[in-house]
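pasting for ref
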Amino acid sequence: MAYSFLLQDSYNARKNFAASHSILDDANAAIWLPSLYNETGDLKRLKRTLSVGEFSDNNSSSNNNNNDSIPRNNSMSSLSSIPRLQFRDHIWTYTQRYLAAEAVEEAAAAIIGGENGVGGVALEEGNGDGMKLVQQLISCAEAVACRDKSHASLLLSELRANALVFGSSFQRVASCFVQGLADRLALVQPLGAVGYISPKTNIMDIASEKKEEALRLVYEICPHIQFGHFVANSSILEAFEGESSVHVVDLGMTLGLPNGHQWRSLIQSLAERASPPACLRITAVGLCIDKFRAIGDELETYALGLGLNLEFSIVQSNLETLKPEDIKVLPREVLVVNSILQLHCVVKESRGALNSVLQIIHELSPKVLVLVEQDSSHNGPFFLGRFMESLHYYSAIFDSLDAMLPKYDTKRAKVEQFYFAEEIKNIVSCEGPARVERHERVDQWRRRMSRAGFQPMPLKMLAQGKQWLNSVNACEGYTVVEEKGCLVLGWKSRPIVAASCWKC
């Protein structure tokens, strides 16, 4: 049975538009309108007759493109009476659908492909209602992408009634995407206008008390961050073996988590060695100075109690403004760099910001760079593709929360609404510099790191990873696998977080 993922009236509207605009039927232009359906309504794969590079789906850049970038031929002379702006907007609208069609189809197929629902994520309230909610979400995302405010507003009203914050796991994740779609709809301008209204706030503003609490709960409940700490500390301990002067540079200080959980574990392991290092230095890089000072004071006291000499310092800088001279490296000390869920925030369209950060790290010549990132493609150039990928990814996370916590658990609601919902809204509603949740797959990180001059250090610790997963009593359904030298934490075969190590 084929499921319709785009509303039938949307499909009919496209057919009518194509029929009324002969330019789209011109053989030389060879433009195929994107549809996931044939005449009988069955799901089908589309062929491409134009290269993806000929068009851009970015809201800001596509509107500023010169009109000459769109191929034209003699058949266009009959359209001289149509305003250029109106024609461009029509082309932009349907090009969005065209370029995202394959991504939508693949993600939709993944959602309906499993016996139990979304890639192993159950649609608890019955497949009929669950699939209807998926259909509404994708249709609404398409309407928002095409700046069809009236249609999108109608669908949002229906979604708000069906996507319940305390409903099934998929209803709960859908409620977060509804918030993101509503925010994006409020920011885009109608057809004919140029540009994109920037949001007033972004996810990297100083965290509220609620978000700080949600972060602590994520650390306690979900194994994602703890997994990163485990892999990082195991790699750092190996790098520090037999060394007397060691130095850790922590980018972001693990999101400002209180108590310095990661470094308490490292300090204890170093202190228990037969020949502990004479000096351990930890440098925190970030803007949360007060938090870092409190963490540093606690760690120094903790290390002193174990007989270890710890020097804690702070570099008040975000990653984009970091300079090599900000990091003080002493002669003959072994340096490692620790990045837990940080570098994706400096991945921009131009790639310059990330390249700059990686160049600075490379100049420091660390013995090891530990990189832990979300393993999902939330930085694609096309909105609909990003939407579908993030829907699949966060559906798996919300399913894991459903397996761990009761439906009306307060902690669960805080984690969902004040942590993961903030990530979802940033991915869905923001563009340009405001969009900082630019998660990428581990293969893309391999390419980026190699271009920056880093060499992979394969992690051969699959057995230890599985033992760790058992030791933390993670919910059944979590998995640890080794993939091309990386260690990946997943939920029911869906990758969630990937850890890798690099050397200069």
